[in-house]
Design a protein that fits this description.
The chain contains 39 helices and 28 strands. It has about 1100 residues and is of the alpha+beta class. It catalyses: Ca(2+)(in) + ATP + H2O = Ca(2+)(out) + ADP + phosphate + H(+). It is an enzyme of class 7 (translocase). Catalyzes the hydrolysis of ATP coupled with the transport of calcium.
């Protein structure tokens, strides 16, 4: 296959014009034959490319297949497969014995005198201060859902009075008021189970089988050494190994402990839900931890019930209580069933609740206090790295056994000599003590080779880089809920994005209005409208909203709250002259149909006085317009709409083409005798939506976010297709897509590139799969259309990231490879179904997540290349030396130091590299791409062969090359030679660490100043190496070197830089090396199965 050179002459160019490189993981869109070669291998337990919804069987399978030396450390962050069963058992126990468990917890907290969860917390006292209700009775009433007790208190109104709460305005917005309530009824926190202490991490690091064997060998060597050579000299061999092992354990434990603290901080962020409460008549946003008994909380679809309480008022309110009862059924809440449980989700409707129980006075609080936060989760990289570590470990074990046998054979055949040149074993003359001591040393070397060869830290490097990336992503406004999403974003080939608030600012204002049958000159000037029309518009806006208008007592500027669309319409109506509080007091809502993303509209039935009922509707302009039979003109007269319908349709189209969101407001009257009288019938009543009177159509401007066009361009150049999926009018969607750069021109805006959700959903499954590839914009889509699009794209092989904010987006967020929920506009249900929360709702932050995803993959590959170079070189040097001379130049303590550089310090240096723009010039990381790419193999072989060649030459000809052949003290000359080998080997690793930073770039120093941790680790490694060689001679089996030998060591290491540049000029084949390795095994398995 012919190839053309890339821009830097290193790699063949890909079909897209961008060359594939290992830093971005290679191409996701590889050629067909390449894809076939990388197809899924069902017999490989580590071939698990998506862990998001993986079965427990496949997760157990890879763990059982992994070669593991320290299971407690290796599997620390994997998923607890028994978590669901444990959670269910705890939930049942708490439901059955809540009172006893609460009493025990209170007793424990009274002893500790504090709770350290979320925010500061106080233990609830038995006294209820200035309130006329007893804490225990209040808790009991809510937990047992006791209606008779509620009635004894005078219903919800009576409880509110005893709690000194205004049911419409909430409690006073006063710090003292909140503190008094916390003291009387407790705070909305629960005691978190304490995390592992540093000593537990020390204990887990100690569990490594090879380290335990080394400690036993060190103790044996120590005892024999002291017995034969005395305490002064005899402790050195055993003591030095023991100290080196303890150093490895401490450094490992410190690294692991720091990671655990990072994960703990991120979990605290995830639990800290922000919600709205009514305080002093205004809607304020607070932390869930600051909710107190007596608070009035508005509930909307997708919210989490933040505390126990009772329903004040609601419309079609349905609660999903499965998280507490275990039964997956929806419970409808009304005055007959008003009790609400903390931790449940609002499935439908709206309502207001009065908080009656918080923290450990709720079943949710008791449950949260009794279970540990499970941060465990497999990631695809983690599983694949365990497979790689297992393969390398088996090779390392084999090599260690070969070295052990070779050394023992040479020893007992009398062909091995000590440093002075004397034969070590002479049959009949060598004492038993010396034989045991020598055998222990040989065994120690073999075990140390296993320590170096088995890359126990390789799978854990994923956790390290993910912990680092997650912390940094918080600064980039992305909160990672699932670890695997972080790396999967590196493979994303398409992003299905919402429009409102993600591509746009979500700062909405009404800029155009059609009312009274014509366009208003000024959108919010009522002078040309009849008072009757203004009154109907005002009533429709004030009653048919989940927002609020607050007038400060000091006469300050009016405060309008609600969703951005609600705020825009409320502001517009307020300027028209709407008296929000007056309208609400003069009429009452008797039934409501909350806004529904399927129907694209919401309505209310309003009772005026005792006789008049008005139905008010508000929603997508063309949908509401289709239900209208008349409109109200500027004189307040009703006119047939037929003659004007085309005018209104053209007005909607014109506004949509100007990127405006079009909302229509309409109403109708309803005879009182046709309205159900009983509450039960009223709840089932469907609001009439025909024969409506059109009152107004408003055009709402929501500007594009600054920088979104550039973010879309970056995605496109990185091989990630951006698709817009919106509930807005197709013309509005098209206009915004053109503005954002998602569509390049008007000529591109033809079906199916731009399509309506209704058209897409009516296609057959096969047709949807064909059409999905070509869709760029989907307008008037429902959440189910988004789900169908995600499914079709995934079947086509795309790795799909999807954004969502509503409850109905949950299935699409769950189905997608990466679900991205919105931190500001997103509901709790959407957030819980997502993998990553975009805290600022900004599309540019989504692009940053893609960069971090690619960075995770690239950093792991850098670390693999660095670690395997050390592995290959150390193993070959020791094997060749052991087989040929019966001795190894790299001693046990030295190998442990190399292991520390390689495993912990190397991972810290390379796994924490920040992402670069270079990553976004590549196509996405292929999910089936090999971990070790051909570029990595080339770099690895070039460096390791150079190191092996230089060090073997020093091993066999070092005495002559270094001018030590005439040294009268042969033992000292050998020690200088071996120290030189050790020093040169470490220098090679230090310099090669720079090469590993940029596996496919000539300039390995670019961006190094932006990673101070890397510079610090390289500097510390170099300084420690000087100290080990110069001052820890007897301990590390080294002798001080002259400045000439130090210079020679540095030059040997320095050669790796120009060598890396020359190596990068060597072309590599496109077919991955792993394909050639696997072919014989697959053929063998196929022949056996035939």
């Amino acid at each position: 296959m012919s190839t053309t050179s890339s821009s830097n002459g290193l790699l063949p160019t890909s079909m897209s014009g961008r060359h594939d490189d290992m830093e971005a993981g290679g191409s996701a869109r590889t050629q067909d034959e390449h894809h076939e070669q990388l197809e899924h291998d069902p017999d490989d337990p580590f071939d698990l490319d998506n862990t998001k919804n993986a079965s427990a069987h496949s997760l157990r399978r890879w763990r059982q297949a992994a070669l593991v030396l320290n299971a407690s450390r290796r599997f620390r962050y994997t998923l607890d497969l028994n978590k669901e069963e444990h959670y269910e058992n705890r939930r049942r126990m708490i439901r059955a014995h809540a009172q006893v468990i609460r009493a025990a917890l209170l007793f424990k907290l009274a002893g500790e005198q504090q709770i350290t969860v979320g925010s500061s917390s106080s233990t609830p006292s038995a006294s209820t201060g200035n309130f006329d209700i007893d804490l225990e009775k209040l808790v009991s009433m809510t937990r047992n859902q006791n209606m008779s007790t509620l009635q004894q208190y005078g219903g919800v109104k009576g409880v509110a009075e005893k709690l000194k709460t205004n049911m419409e305005q909430g409690i006073e917005e006063d710090e003292k008021e909140v503190t008094d309530r916390k003291n009387a009824f407790g705070s909305n926190t629960y005691p978190k189970k304490k995390g592992k202490s540093f000593y537990m991490f020390l204990w887990e690091a100690w569990q490594d089988l090879t380290l335990i064997i080394l400690i036993i060998a060190a103790v044996t060597s120590l005892a024999l050494g002291i017995k034969t050579e005395g305490l002064k000299e005899g402790w050195l061999d055993g003591g030095s190994i023991a100290f080196a092992v303890f150093l490895v354990i401490i450094v490992t434990a410190v690294s692991d402990y720091r990671q655990s603290l990072q994960f703990s901080n991120l979990n605290d962020e995830k639990r800290n839900i922000q919600l709205e409460v009514m305080r002093g008549g205004r809607t304020v946003k607070i932390s869930i931890y600051d909710v107190v008994v007596g608070d009035v909380i508005p509930l909307r679809i997708g919210d989490q019930v933040p505390a126990d309480g009772v329903l004040i008022s609601g419309h079609s309110l349905a609660i999903d209580e499965s998280s507490m009862t275990g039964e997956s059924k929806i419970c409808h809440k009304d005055q007959k069933s008003p009790f609400l449980m903390s931790g449940c989700k609002v499935a439908d409707g709206v309502g207001n609740m009065l908080v009656t129980g918080v923290g450990i006075n709720t079943e949710w609080g008791l449950l949260m206090a009794s279970i540990s936060e499970d941060t465990g989760e497999e990631t695809p990289l983690q599983v694949r790295l365990n497979g790689l570590a297992t393969f390398i470990g088996i090779v390392g074990l084999t090599v260690a056994v070969v070295v052990l046998v070779a050394l023992l054979v040479r020893y007992f055949t009398g062909t091995s000599q000590d440093s002075s040149g004397a034969t070590q074993f002479v049959k009949g003359k060598t004492s038993i003590g010396d034989i045991v001591d020598d055998c222990v040393k040989i065994f120690t070397i073999a075990v140390t080779i296993v320590v170096v060869a088995v890359p126990e830290g390789l799978p854990l490097a994923v956790t390290l880089t993910l912990a680092y990336s997650m912390r940094k992503m918080m600064a980039d406004k992305a909160l990672v809920r699932r670890l695997s999403a972080c790396e999967t974003m590196g493979s994303a080939t398409t992003i299905c994005s919402d429009k409102t608030g993600t591509l746009t600012l979500n700062q909405m204002t009404v800029v155009e209005t059609y009312a009274g049958g014509s366009k208003m000159d000024v959108a919010d000037n009522p002078s040309g409208l009849h008072p009757k029309l203004v009154a109907l518009i005002s009533e429709g806006v004030a009653q048919n909203t989940t927002g609020n208008v607050f007038h400060p007592k000091d006469g300050g500027e009016v405060e309008i709250s609600g969703s951005p669309t609600e705020k825009a319409i409320l502001s517009w109506a307020y300027k028209l002259g709407m008296k929000f509080d007056t309208i609400r007091s003069e009429s009452a809502i008797i039934h409501a149909f909350p806004f529904n993303s399927e129907k694209k509209r919401g309505g209310v039935a309003v009772l005026r006085g005792d006789s008049e009922v008005f139905i008010h509707w508000k929603g997508a302009a063309e949908i509401v317009l289709a239900c209208c039979t008349q409109y109200m003109d500027s004189n307040g007269t009703l006119q047939p709409i037929d003659s004007q319908k085309e005018f209104f349709r053209l007005a909607i189209d014109a506004m949509a083409k100007n990127s405006l969101r079009c909302v229509a407001i309409a109403c109708r009257t309803q005879e009182l005798n046709k309205v159900p009288k009983e509450q039960e019938d009223l709840d089932k009543w469907s609001l009439p939506e025909d024969e409506l009177t059109l009152l107004a159509i408003v055009g709402i401007k929501d500007p594009c976010r600054p920088g979104v066009r550039e973010a879309v361009r970056i995605c496109t150049s990185a091989g990630v297709k951006v698709r817009m999926v919106t509930g807005d009018n197709l013309q509005t969607a098209k206009a915004i897509a053109l503005e954002c750069g998602i569509l390049s021109s008007d000529t591109e805006a033809v079906e199916p590139t731009i399509i309506e959700g209704k058209v897409f959903r009516e296609l057959s499954e096969k047709e949807r799969e064909q059409v999905a590839k070509r869709i760029t914009v989907m307008g008037r889509s429902s959440p189910n259309d988004k789900l169908l699009l995600v499914q079709a794209l995934r079947k086509n092989g795309d790795v799909v990231a999807v954004t969502g904010d509503g409850t109905n987006d949950a299935p699409a967020l769950h189905e997608a490879d990466i679900g991205l929920s919105m931190g500001i506009s997103g509901t709790e249900v959407a957030k819980e179904s997502s993998d990553i929360i975009i805290l600022d709702d900004n599309f540019a932050s989504v692009v940053k997540v893609v960069r971090w995803g690619r960075s995770v993959y690239a950093n792991i590959q850098k670390f693999i290349q660095f670690q395997l170079t050390v592995n290959v070189a150390a193993l070959i040097i020791n094997v060749v030396a052991a087989m040929s001379s019966g001795d190894v130049p790299l001693k046990a303590v030295q190998l442990l130091w190399v292991n520390l550089i390689m495993d912990t310090l190397g991972a810290l240096a390379l796994a924490t590299e920040p992402p670069t723009d270079h990553l976004m010039h590549r196509t996405p990381v292929g999910r089936r791409e090999p971990l070790i790419t051909n570029i990595m193999w080339r770099n690895l072989l070039v460096q390791s062969l150079y190191q092996v060649a230089v060090l073997l030459v020093l091993n066999f000809a070092g005495l002559n090359i270094l001018g030590l052949g005439h040294d009268n003290n042969h033992a000292h000359a050998v020690e200088v030679k071996n120290t030189m080998i050790f020093n040169a080997f470490v220098m090679c690793q230090i310099f090669n660490e720079f090469n590993a930073r940029k596996p496919d770039e000539m300039n390995v120093f670019s961006g190094v100043s932006k990673n101070p941790l890397f510079i610090a680790i390289v500097g510390v490694t170099f300084v420690l190496q000087i100290l080990i060689v110069t001052f820890l001679g007897e301990f590390a089996h080294t002798v001080p070197l002259s400045w000439q030998l130090w210079l020679a060591s540095i030059i040997i290491g320095l050669v790796s830089w120009p060598l890396a540049v020359v190596g990068k000029l060597i072309p590599v084949p496109r077919t991955p090396m792993s394909v050639y390795f696997k072919k014989p095994f697959r053929k063998y398995r196929a022949s056996r199965n035939a």
